[in-house]
UniProtKB/TrEMBL annotation:
PANTHER family, alphabetized: 30S 40S RIBOSOMAL PROTEIN (PTHR11831), U3 SMALL NUCLEOLAR RIBONUCLEOPROTEIN PROTEIN IMP3 (PTHR11831:SF1)
Protein name (Swiss-Prot/TrEMBL): U3 small nucleolar ribonucleoprotein protein IMP3
GO biological process, one term: rRNA processing
Chief localization: nucleus
Gene Ontology CC terms: Mpp10 complex; ribosome; small-subunit processome
Ranges for domain Small ribosomal subunit protein uS4 N-terminal: 4-107
SMART domains assigned: Ribosomal_S4
Database matches in Pfam families: Ribosomal_S4, S4
Subcellular location: Nucleus, Nucleolus
Keywords: Nucleus, Ribonucleoprotein, Ribosomal protein, Ribosome biogenesis, RNA-binding, rRNA-binding
rRNA-binding found in the keyword field: yes
C-alpha cells in the first residue's frame, strides 16, 4: 500500500508528468554526442538548431519563382557560404541542404583522424583539450571549434607539444641537444 503524499509533495509533483517525458526519444542525440565526443549537450542542441535554420532558409528560397534572378543569386550565395564553412561537400545541388545534419558541424576531430594525426576521435578530443592542436596561428582548446575549408591545411601540432616532439624524434627529424 502506498502512503498518502504530503501537501508539499503534491505541489511538487503537479509540475511533472511522469508518463510523457520530453526527452524520451533522444537515442540519436546520444549516439551523435558519443560518436563525436561532444563535451556539452548544449553544443548538440545549438548545431541542431542551426541545421533547422539552414533547412528553413533553403525552404523559403525554394518557394521563390525558379526563374527569378534573386532566387538564383541567393541559392549560390548560400551554397558558397556553406561550402566555405565545410558543411556541404559540393556547391552543385541546392537540394542537398535538406540533408545537413549535426555531424557536419563536428569537423575538426574527424578531419584530424583522416589526416592520420590520431587513431580515434577520443584521442583527438583529449589532445585538443590539452592544447596540443593549433589551427593557423592560434591554439585550440575547444573540440567544437569549426574549421573552415580555408583553414583545413593549417591544422597542425603546437610547436611546444611533446607529441609533436615525439613524432619528430620517431621520424629522425629532430636534433636533440645531447646529440651534438
Amino acid at each position: 500500500m502506498v502512503r498518502k503524499l504530503k501537501y508539499h509533495e503534491q505541489k511538487l509533483l503537479k509540475k511533472f508528468d511522469f508518463l510523457q517525458w520530453k526527452n524520451e526519444d533522444n537515442i540519436r542525440e546520444i549516439k551523435i554526442i558519443r560518436r563525436y565526443h561532444l563535451q556539452k549537450r548544449e553544443d548538440y542542441h545549438k548545431y541542431n538548431k542551426l541545421c533547422g535554420l539552414i533547412k528553413k532558409l533553403a525552404n523559403k528560397i525554394s518557394l521563390l519563382d525558379p526563374r527569378d534572378p534573386f532566387r538564383s543569386k541567393q541559392e549560390t550565395a548560400l551554397l558558397d557560404k556553406l561550402y566555405s564553412m565545410g558543411l556541404i561537400t559540393a556547391k552543385k545541388q541546392f537540394s542537398q541542404l535538406d540533408k545537413i545534419t549535426v555531424s557536419a558541424f563536428c569537423r575538426l576531430p574527424i578531419m584530424m583522424c583522416r589526416l592520420k594525426m590520431t587513431e580515434t576521435v577520443k584521442e583527438v578530443v583529449t589532445f585538443i583539450e590539452q592544447g596540443h592542436i593549433r589551427v593557423g596561428p592560434e591554439t585550440i582548446t575547444d573540440p567544437a571549434y569549426l574549421v573552415t575549408r580555408n583553414l583545413e591545411d593549417f591544422v597542425t601540432w603546437v610547436d611546444t607539444s611533446k607529441i609533436k616532439r615525439k613524432i619528430m624524434k620517431y621520424n629522425d627529424k629532430v636534433c636533440l641537444i645531447s646529440d651534438i
